[in-house]
């Protein structure tokens, strides 16, 4: 009589999370997706573009990762954007944390980097095209959400009384530039839209402001090259304040922009953010050219902390049509000063050297 091999006991409930993680990660394609989601969220079609895979294949991989608790999806307009989940405290959490640490330590294949940049360029192009097409109707569309006078005075309260250098990213028509010009010796403004650059310049000229320099472009990484020599010179020294007012939800990679801002801040400098809270009003994509339906405050705080900034004061303001605006100040910690030596005392001056 043949004896059958003993059967292993069923997986204990406490081990099910661990088994799900190991099973989901037993595929190089899924590990690659997790690496791509390290610092951004992507729709299925965008991941397909980066990976060179069909949407059905990408969806299958995401389903397996989601069932293991490694990714989650957030509906944003007509698309779902998938992002990594952080390790929790439950079964498998230590394996989850070790997995992310291991895969993040490896550089991405250059082809994946190129595919990701292609997706970012497509997002940015859609946003720029919207503003260039709708500059004449920008104010009316924006006023459906929040008028500048409803939040800019409160944002100004987060500014220091005075300083040397400030930068505003995405100033739009330039309503906040006079406030910056009044407090800072030199102000720089960057906008990706030619139409908005012209409007901001006209606004400053009408106000008689001569200490603001407005350029078309985007903020590069601190080590990134700049074709505009004048702008490169302006950005060469650290900045006391950087302002991003209602910009992040138009930005393809908002977390990357936060990191670039942090790189440019001087010791003790401040990053001021005014931004929409998450909402479910999909019409803003068509009416206002939004890339994201608001930014989650916890995600924003995590991006700032990851860039080495500390959370300062914050405020939330209710707006028309059910929108909310969040105001935050994030601070670059001041560099520690060496301790000041104590003045010599008579006793120490006459102390014999052993």
Rg from alpha-carbon coordinates: 25 Å
Uncertain parts: 348-354
Q: Approximately how much helix is present in the residues?
A: 40-55%
Global geometry: elongated
* Number of discrete domains: 2
Q: What is the typical, i.e. mean, pLDDT? A: 83
CATH class of the largest domain: Alpha Beta
State the CATH topology of the largest domain: Rossmann fold
Largest sheet geometry: 7 strands, mixed
Tell me the distance between the termini. Answer: 92 Å
Helix/strand/pairing category: alpha/beta
CATH architecture descriptor of the largest domain: 3-Layer(aba) Sandwich
Note the beta-strand portion: 15-25%
**Total number of strands:** 9
Number of helices: 15
CATH superfamily of the largest domain: Vaccinia Virus protein VP39
Looking across the biggest beta sheet, what order are the strands in?
5-4-3-6-7-9-8
Order of helices and strands: HHHHEEHHHHEHEHEHEHEHHEEH
SSE topology sketch:
Blueprint (H helix, E strand, L loop, with lengths): L12 H12 L3 H9 L7 H8 L3 H13 L3 E6 L2 E6 L8 H12 L5 H25 L3 H6 L8 H5 L6 E7 L7 H7 E8 L2 H13 L5 E5 L12 H6 L4 E7 L8 H11 E12 L6 H6 L8 H10 L3 E9 L5 E8 L14 H4 L5
Parallel strand pairs: 3-4, 3-6, 4-5, 6-7
Antiparallel strand pairs: 1-2, 7-9, 8-9
